[in-house]
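Need tokens for this chain, all 178 residues.
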Amino acid sequence: MVSQPRPPADNGLPTAGHDAFHPDFAQQAGGGKPTSLSSRLHHVRAGSLDEGTAQTGGMTRFAAISGRTVGSERIWMGETHVAPGTASSDHHHGASETAIHVIEGHPEFVFLDDAGGTPEEVRIRTAPGDYIFVPPYVPHREENPSPDETAVVVIARSTQEAVVVNLPGLYVLGEPTV
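Here are the structure tokens for all 178 residues:
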């Protein structure tokens, strides 16, 4: 099954389609939304993910949980879609820790490891159900070697918004970028 990217959501704060408010919640004067976003649960519908988030060439990120979408303060969560036969640009996520759960496809995660003294490209091949942890500032890229299957992963980050620093190439942590 090939996943289709989801349409972008409304780029404002929660709306009825994006973050449906229960009719029993107290409303602001004049029938507005509840007064506190931090005192209630938020429901982000699958078809309402927000493409208006940090991007890297070769992939599309969709935000579900962020400071902008639901008022989160310490977490970002969403999906990434990598088209068949595509590789993302090299990038890192700043001080953010990133957890990845593979939903569809067999994406590969590539980084440089110099544990042996010489930088060596490492390729982690995954399958649906697998998890990947990306430490802060570690340059990497995602690749989808499949000629016909989109790779879809769910991502959680330890920052309020998606932090993406696009790079001209991979490098070992601690060395300057080229």
